[in-house]
Request: fold
Amino acid sequence: MDIQRPSNARAKKIRRIAYGAVAFLLIGGVSLGLSRLRPAAPTVDRATIYAGEVRRGPMLREVRGLGTLVPEDIRWIPAQTNSKVERIVLRPGAIIHPNSIILELSDPQLQRDLLDAQYQLKGAEADFANLKVQVNSQLMNQKSVEAAVRSDYEQAKIQHEVDDKLAKEGIGSDVTAKLSKVKEEQLAIRLQLEGERTRVATDSAVAQLAAQEAKVEQQHALYNLKRSQYDALHLRAGIEGVLQLVPVEEGQQVTPGTNLARVADPKKLKAEIKIPETQAKDVTIGQKATVDTRNGVVVGHVWRIDPSVQNGPFTVDVRITEPLPHGARPDLSVDGTIELENLKDVLYMDRPVNGQPDSKIGIFKLVDDGSEAVRVNVVLGRASVNTIEVKEGLKVGDKVILSDMSQWDNFDRIRLK
Reply:
């Protein structure tokens, strides 16, 4: 006979619910734990990175830029008149001297003007010579009249003294003495007038001669101008150096002021260095500079700073104070380095990629004997070409990765192998 067992369905249901709740809690806990885990640190090949060490001591601040050698003395020779280029005597690259003829020009009108100026000068000089003879003759005549009147006055004066003495002694008459006195007084007045006329004639002669002499000088200046313009038709260099450029062709008509040739002295060269705008604020005149010509390094100093920005960088002129190495020539590409200041005792390191002055960056610091690197925030200060000041975030002896780590920006830790 079968015995009916008591039913356990309810207990099984409760047990299944309990198992499901435990499983749900377990899966949720594991998922939450996994979500809070940090990503696994990526592995980076040690050979692909460049590391540097933080140091303390003196740091030389410098800025660097590319540039070219240019002559200090560059001269453009312009045309002085409307003329035509007849012949190009020398071509660019030729060694020139002050009297070297570069171009031969022609201007028929200038030749006529020169002849006119020459004849006008001769006419003015002839008029001056003629006037000089005339005024001297007139002045001599006036002086002769004055001398004659002076002679008459002296005779009348003596006669009056004789007549006056005879009248006082009773030998001569008073009337005769009075008449001689009147004659003396009249001649004295005439002598005074003739003396004034002589002075006036002298002043007039000087004024006339000065006016005519000014005309002569004017014609002489005009002739010299035309002569210099005519001589300039044979275009000369004017300095020792090298002919750099002749921007005209034979047969070309040119106007006054047109640049016909450029000459330069290749012995006196300066370096024009392009400095980035962000680095140029600390550059001042007189700072020491070095110029690498790729054939030798020479020393100079900052001579001029361009006051305006041209296409981004500033132009800094460096005057070279040492003899240039062999092969240095105009337009040669050079590297220029300018010393800004020498910091005595600062914390610094080699300049990392994208390490800008007065900025805050994230950088990987080596830990665990260099097997790993962790990201730290570093505050940077003053910068040089290859080094930069460390203000916060690192200490002496720390080793950091200086190469580009932008591909690991999403990680705070990396492994090195």
In short: Helices lie at 9-36, 108-169, 174-231. The mean pLDDT is 85. The first strand starts at residue 43 and ends at 44.
